[in-house]
Amino acid sequence: MPASPHVLCRVLIPRDLAAGQYQVELGLYDRGTGQRRPVFQAGMPASDRLLVGPVTVRSRS
Fold this sequence. Notes:
Blueprint: E1 20-26, E2 28-29, E3 36-37, E4 39-41, E5 44-47, E6 50-57
Antiparallel strand pairs: 1-6, 2-3, 4-5
């Protein structure tokens, strides 16, 4: 996979997931070693994960 500053990832949400607010965190892993990679924000090391923020899951009604 070529290096790119953009990554698209789809996350499947289970149909039976209870409605509510969930905190979403993203982590990056080295494909070859499986080791966790650092995350950068505005060019500065942030952590080993990126907090995306709360996501609200609503029931299908």
